[in-house]
Amino acid sequence: MDTSEFRKYAHELVDWMADYMEKAGSYPVRAAVQPREILRQIPESPPQRGEPFETLFADFQNIILPGMTHWQSPSFFAYFPANSSPPSILAEMLTATLGAQCMSWVTSPAATELEERMMQWLAGMISLPATFTGVIQDTASTATLCALLTARERASHFSVNARGFSSSPPFTAYCSTEAHSSVEKAVKIAGLGRENLRKVPVDDAFAMQPRALERMLEEDRAAGHVPLFAVAAMGTTGSTAIDPLREIGGLCRRYQVWLHVDAAFAGSALILPELRWMSAGVEMCDSFVFNPHKWLFTNFDCSAYFVRDVEALVRTFEILPEYLKTSESERVNNYRDWGLQLGRRFRALKLWFVIRSYGVEGLQEKLRLHIRMAYDLAEQMRASGDFELLAPAPLNVLCFRYHPAGIRSDETLNELNARLLESLNATGKLYLTHTKLGGNFTLRLVIGQTNVQPPHVGNAWRLIQHVARSLA
Ligand code: PLP
Asked: Is beta strand 433-437 parallel, antiparallel or unpaired with respect to 387-389?
């Protein structure tokens, strides 16, 4: 494809993209295809000769699009969102065009320095103490692994990196029973052993019980273990429960445990001063992660990782073969040493475009609307008489079930609500996912998509009531 063809097709695609944004809500939200249905339509071998772009794009529309779940539909209420926005998409287009690999300052100084500044902007926007320094990671899972590896190295005086585990103490890690599975994954990968991850019980609001954590720390220490790493959730995946940071932070200080805050979803809400109560105590934490790719309208992937001890982070990851040595490294950041991978995408550009395009106030307005819509819907559910909320809803995630009068058995309710979820998603008009809270099958409805407005929530609520009552 030469540049004149590229120009022609790119213009056509931009038109298609704008049309898609306008009508994303008209597609079935969850892909309605059977397993391997797409695979069967793709030839087993690649073409020997190049094909015209018209054919590729027709196949994209006919084969791929029907197999896509539409995360950018305003009726996408599932999981947590992975939001995009027009300025973010434009930045991604430029990033793809420049095609830079931003591993070191010298491989793209602007990418490195923009990243440094964007992390400062974000830290200020969410009111993190100035003691934190940020770096973009691909995902929160990676950031949590980085935090654990750094904690392990600092506590072992960098001996695990040097000699393996032979002389390191038996480390233990802690998170609540509601923590994200990425914590357990990190514990496995970092070599601590899954059996050395303690799952701390939660209270009625699904937040970690600090007294239980304290007991576990005490017992482990008495048994000769070395408590190393704790994760506090600011917004659990199941129900956006907020672990009490201040109390957990006090314990971690006392037991010299690295405290990492997983705010993957809810961290974005700290741009709202009225929600900063969630981060009270954050000054006692060692690291903090949140995902602008979830609730700050920045295309996946973009995870903001903040750490207090940058030197320990860099000492954990840096490796300096001759071919990577550069003369200015004393004065600049070489982000290849701030995480797992060598090669890095230019992710700061989309953050820059998003933050400047909306402005902090524009972003705050969008988040406030999402939360207000969730509060209104929670009120309607409470008033309905046959729906019940199964968890507090401090933000924009509603955890609920249908509970018609006369049904007392949890088993029957679980089965009824599982059928309700499947029936709802099969309509294609919305997409919800579920979790289990206290053993109960729980529907989750997340109001956080970039373009969701009150009529979308209203339609969803009407459909939920209608389908539920017809099932019963
Ligand atoms: N932590 C929490 C609380 C999450 O909800 C999620 C994903 O939804 C993650 C971590 C993992 O995020 P990522 O996909 O960025 O690794």
From this structure: unpaired
Ligand 1 atom nearest to CA at 179: 3
- Residue 322 confidence (pLDDT) above 90: no
Confidence of residue 363 (pLDDT cuts 50, 70, 90): very high
Place of tokens 């672990």: 243
**Cα of 264 from ligand 1 centre, angstroms:** 5
Residues 324-354 pLDDT 10s: 767 777 789 999 999 999 999 999 999 999 9
Which residues are CB-contacts of 104 (< 8 A; sequence separation ≥ 6)? 112, 324, 326, 334, 335, 336
| pTM for this entry | 0.96
**176 Cβ below 6 A of ligand 1:** no
Fill in the DSSP letter of residue 226: E
From the CA of 139, give the closest atom in ligand 1: 15
CA distance 265 to 296: 9
Residue 403 alpha carbon to ligand 1 centre in Å: 30
Q: Would you tell me how many other CB atoms lie within 10 Å of the CB of residue 175?
A: 28
Report the amino acid identity of residue 255: Y
Given a contact cutoff of 8 angstroms between Cβ atoms, the answer to whether 83 and 296 are in contact is yes
Atom of ligand 1 nearest to the CA of 143: 16
- What separation in Å is there between the alpha carbon of 285 and the centre of ligand 1? 19
Q: How far apart are CA 269 and CA 417, in angstroms?
A: 30
**Any atom of ligand 1 within 6 Å of the Cβ of 264:** yes
Report residue 99 as tokens: 């095609």
Name the pairing type of β-strands 303-307 and 433-437: unpaired
Q: What average pLDDT score do residues 377-389 get?
A: 97
The domains of the chain, with CATH numbers, are 1-30+69-85+359-472 (3.90.1150.170), 100-345 (3.40.640.10)
Q: Quote the tokens at residue 437.
A: 């809270």
Q: Sign of torsion, CA 107 109 115 116?
A: positive
Q: Which tens digit of pLDDT belongs to each residue from 151-203?
A: 999 999 999 999 998 877 899 999 999 999 999 999 999 999 999 999 999 99
CB atoms within 10 A of CB 209: 18
